[in-house]
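writing this on my phone so excuse typos. first protein, seq and then structure
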Amino acid sequence: MDDWLPSERSRTTAKQPTATVPGGVATQDTSDGRRQRFTQAVTSRARAAAARPANTRPTRRLIRRDIMVRRVDPWSVLKISVVFYTCMLIIAMLANAVFWAFVGRLGLIDQVTEIAGALNIALSINTGNILRAFFLVGVLGVIFWSAVNVFLAFLYNLVADLIGGIRIDLAEDE
């Protein structure tokens, strides 16, 4: 590849004979044939472009494939579920922390405790305890819903053995 640099590709010398192929593209004869293969690919594209009218776009072939999902690996489902629900827990914790910081800045917590004190109700709101409880519930939710997803993967595998799985039709442009 080192002997065929892009600068040599565009340069024509008197030593190399040129010929015109039916597509109208000039080719250069080389001893190793690499240049000729490149120009053959270019000429086939040029012929295809000359054959169709200038205003039309080239048609694309659509490749269709049917895929059958027969088995879902429960270990993969567990890993993906734990990562997904942990990310959701982190997002919910950040949203909860922002919410309670906003409520604290507005002074709503102090107003609620004053109203409760006027009604002879002892009330203290600690945002740290609220966030800890929310985190505990979130961790339990991650464990529970990951277990539910693994159970559903096992259930899908059992049903897929009886029925045959889910057929998915994929289409791809060529």
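second protein below, same order as before
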Amino acid sequence: MQLGLGPRLGAICLILASACGGEDQADTDINTDEPAQQQVEDPSNPTGQDPKDQESDLGQAEQTGDTGPKGYLERIETPSGVVIDIIERGAGAAIQDGLVAEIHYRGFTIENGKRSKRPFESSLKRGKPYLLHYGKSPVISGWNIGLKGMLEGSKLRLHIPAKHAYGAKGLPPLVLGNRDLQFLIDVISVTLP
């Protein structure tokens, strides 16, 4: 007796579903100190990025780990090479000279066009936003270029070339020399000092 295609196809789907896991187990807690686990190649996850890191704590936009044009409302390419992806547009005051921006951020290195799995620096991990006195705080030039004019309430992804980050010297041991960086930034508030 031959079974029709329907029961065989159903059995195959059931086997595949149980092998792949039937539930979404993505954990958005990015602030763990657990060592990275070896990834098994998964066609539904072409970047091989840990699902925990695919969604930013800084917004609901997809964070795939590559430096391509994904998950943003608008891309601004500056003459300096800094690229600003506006993930969520705020409606408050704009960052400008003399104002203080309270921001949360996560910084990642870029190697071979891919973002590192874990941030080298994170205000979220410290549990305290960074107070940026725009034009006065000692930050990399890529931040001054990328944050100027951004609105309170915005969620951004900054792509910063090495020359506007830590340059040839890097920031050992966290950032090797000549590394481009990517920052995920949440502009919480913009106020007078």
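Confidence is low (pLDDT under 50) at residues 1-68. thats all i got for now
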